[in-house]
Amino acid sequence: MKNRYIPFGYQIQNGDSVINTEQAATVQHIFYAYTEGQSFKEIAEYLTTSGTAYHFSDNSWNKNIVARILANEIYCGAKGYPAIISKEVYSQAASIRSNKTVTYSAVLKPFRSDMQCACCGERLYWRPRTQQWTCRQCGMWSKPMQPENMAQQIVDRLYQIQQHPEIIHNPKEQCNTRSIEVAQLDHEIHTALALPELDADAIIDKILRRAELQFNYCAAGDDDPTTMQIKRACKEFKPTDTFPESFYSSIVSKIILHLDTHIDIKLRNGQTL
Question: How far is it, in rounded angstroms, from Cα 29 to Cα 157?
């Protein structure tokens, strides 16, 4: 990355620092996108993809560049530079930078990347200023909801699933699926039997191991290995006073959010509850 001698957003004209209109629009976008909830990385990726130049023909942005711009007070008129954004917007961005770790980020971290739009199935993004989830694909905006309330709603659903494992079942399209390990053992046994010199003990061990796995699989009825794992996690889980992050990650694939903020849980076996 080339070094800049004039801060991004400005240019020298008649010996004075003046606003570069095109770059100033990018600075404004960065501040407004950040205060709307986008991360440094998301903003950088958008600017790079859209071909926004950072230095002459160089349109390579990264989260460090974005962070430096957001932290630079010259953009609200400090140090003799003309203001590109208001002091209020700069202060709002600064407040988010300093507080988000101890406010919403810690609460949302376990499930933030798993939030899915009920309308189109795409990922949802959190907007801290309005306390809403939004979809960039279809434009859906959820009703406002505190992060803590969303986390509690997820916990309540997890406990409901854990206490009623009978509602967990293997989706029809996955019935009678063999486990990957059984299939792998079949291949290894077949390969070993084709060798000129047989290792009888090793082959017997593999056959016995395969029989054990197949027995466990058949004993579970129509349950596939993933469904079995989910049921086992429910059986072993012990309720806690905090968000059950380990239990959540072991059984949940997506959190499907509807406009009215009620949720469906998509399990790792593909079942939606």
Answer: 38
State mean pLDDT over 48-60: 80
Instruction: Please tell me the predicted confidence (pLDDT) of residue 182.
Output: 75
Residue 236: both structure tokens together: 């072993």
Residue 216's pLDDT band (cuts 50, 70, 90): low
Structure tokens at 186: 């079949």
Where would I find the H helices in 194-244?
Answer: 200-219, 225-236
Which residues have a Cβ under 8 Å from the Cβ of 55 and sit 6 or more positions away?
Answer: 1, 2, 4
Q: Is 28 helix (H, G, I), strand (E, B) or coil?
A: helix
Q: Distance between CA atoms of 17 and 38, rounded to whole angstroms?
A: 30
Calpha distance 270→268 (Å, rounded): 5
Q: Does pLDDT of 140 surpass 80?
A: yes
The pLDDT of residue 15: 86
Tokens representing 9 are 């957003």
**DSSP code, position 266:** E
Separation of alpha carbons 93 and 99, rounded Å: 10
Average the pLDDT over each of 25-29, 169-173, 190-194 and give the range with the smallest value.
169-173
Rg (CA), the chain: 27
Q: Are the C-beta atoms of residues 155 and 62 closer than 8 Å to each other?
A: no
Structural domains of the chain sorted by starting position, each given as residue range(s) with its CATH number in brackets: 10-99 (3.90.1750.20), 106-170+227-267 (no CATH), 181-220 (no CATH)
**Nearest by Cα to 4 from 68, 84, 50:** 68
pTM value is: 0.51
Q: Is 3 helix (H, G, I), strand (E, B) or coil?
A: coil
Q: Which of 143, 214, 144 is nearest to 178 (CA)?
A: 214
